[in-house]
C-alpha cells in the first residue's frame, strides 16, 4: 500500500500545467490546436492552446509547433480581414509549456500581439 501511494505521488509530481493568457472561448483549429482572437486598434491578439501525446517528452518541440500555429493563424486571420501584418517577433510571444505525466500529454499556451502593416 505504501509503495502504491509513493508511486502515485511521484506520478502526480510529474504533472505541470501551462499558464493561461485569456479567458476567451477558444475555437478548434485542428486536432491539436484551439485558438481565440481578440481584436484591438491596429491589430489583434491571437491566443493558442496546443497539446499532443508524446511518449518521450520534448517540450521544446511542442513549444515550436505552438509558435508556428500562432503565426499561421495570425496570417490566416489577417488575410480574411484583407489586411497585411507585421512579422510576429518570436521574442515577444508569451509562451508556457506543461506536461501531464499520467496521460503523456505535453501542452503549450501562447499569446501573440499582431500589428497590421501601416500604409506606406
Structural class category: alpha+beta
Distance from first to last alpha carbon? 71 Å
Low-pLDDT segments, ≥5 res: none
Strand content: 25-35%
Neighbour order of strands in the largest sheet = 1-2-3-5-4
Notes on the protein architecture:
With 120 residues, this protein is an alpha+beta fold. The protein has one domain (2-115). Helices cover 29% and strands 32% of the residues. The protein has helices at 2-13, 59-81; strands spanning 27-28, 33-40, 43-53, 94-100, 105-115. The chain has a five-stranded antiparallel beta sheet, covered by helices on one side.
Helix-strand blueprint:
Elements lengths: L1 H12 L13 E2 L4 E8 L2 E11 L5 H23 L12 E7 L4 E11 L5
Antiparallel strand pairs: 1-2, 2-3, 3-5, 4-5
Provide a compact summary of the structure.
The chain is an alpha+beta fold and 120 residues long. The protein contains 2 helices and 5 strands; from the N terminus they run αβββαββ. The chain has a 5-stranded antiparallel β-sheet with strand order 1-2-3-5-4, covered by helices on one side.
Please describe the structure with a list of short key phrases separated by commas or semicolons.
alpha+beta, elongated
